[in-house]
Amino acid sequence: MPHPRPQFDTDVAGQENEETDSAFGGSIRGSETSTLDSDILRYRVENGRTYHSYAIIFWTLVLEGDLYSAPIKNPQDVLDVETGTGIWAIDVADMIPSAIVKGIDLSPIQPSWIPPNVRFEVDDYNKEREHTNRFDLIHSREILGTVPDWVQFYKKALDSRFSALRPGGWMDSTEPLIHINSIHGPVAKDHPFNIWTTQFATISEQTGLLWDVAPHLKRWMEEAGFVNVTEKVVRVAIGKWPKAQKQKELGAWNQLRLDMGFGDFTERRMRNVLNWQNDEIMILVAKIRASVQNSKEGLFMHLYHVYGQKPGE
Ligand SMILES: C[S@@+](CC[C@H](N)C(=O)[O-])C[C@H]1O[C@@H](n2cnc3c(N)ncnc32)[C@H](O)[C@@H]1O
């Protein structure tokens, strides 16, 4: 299916020549990393939490300090679907002390030292439960490759047999587009990122779990029955190549989180679904990481923020 042309609400990547910092071509791991490194360490000490602080900083910068895009202030009953390490749920609970924030995940990988208003449950989101419509806000982020049917996924957020929204409550989803672009023009077919994308299309076909989801979220939310559905697309650099300070900082954090995280979800799927050998996987991941670390490639990606409201209020 062709991708709808994204409407750029925030042009983070900028244009070649005018906004490219030609003085910077390396990765964040060189001598220019000292500020970032100390940010990571300081953040860890202040919060006493030792997991993925670069991811927290990245997402906070993407939304310019906000934790979600939906137009709801001070939601009191909040659900984070497929919460992972639970960092979003913890941040919302810290930000709104009067709210009860619940995070659901199949894996018990959440920390035990959490704010008193967070509840983590090891559970399957697809399970029917006794809840009535109670949530003001349901949030999902980077759950690509885990949802068998996205229209059904969104319908559950409207259906009182599942963990559903109150009438007037908001669903808020964030997903990355898996196709990578460069300011220097089309990315070559045999670029490691494109090899990765092609392989993950095959993984989608074989598992029935789509990875190329971001441009379709709006349509799926509308098909499920949400109203006031809005899509915002943010373009984010991979690396410190943009000239503008804000974009450069965002690009640096994006570079770091991709560099550190890419292998995690790639290796298992390529081994289990595609039967790739370990050395083949390691070579592809190493090439992707080298590309991520090379700011001269001028790579950028798109993040889709989509939110919609449950009718009835
Ligand atoms: C990439 S992580 C999510 C990251 C997290 N949302 C964040 O922004 O930090 C995807 C998570 O989905 C969980 N998951 C997959 N299928 C699930 C299901 N049916 N119910 C609950 N959790 C599920 C996995 O255990 C994994 O932790």
TrEMBL record:
One of its GO terms (biological process) is methylation. Signal peptide: none annotated. Residues 1-29 are annotated as: Disordered. Coiled coil: none annotated. Gene3D superfamilies: Vaccinia Virus protein VP39 (3.40.50.150). GO terms for molecular function: methyltransferase activity. It comes from the Eukaryota. The keyword Methyltransferase applies. The keyword Transferase applies. Keywords: Methyltransferase, Transferase. Pfam families: Methyltransf_23. PANTHER family: ABC TRANSMEMBRANE TYPE-1 DOMAIN-CONTAINING PROTEIN-RELATED, METHYLTRANSFERASE. This is Methyltransferase family protein.
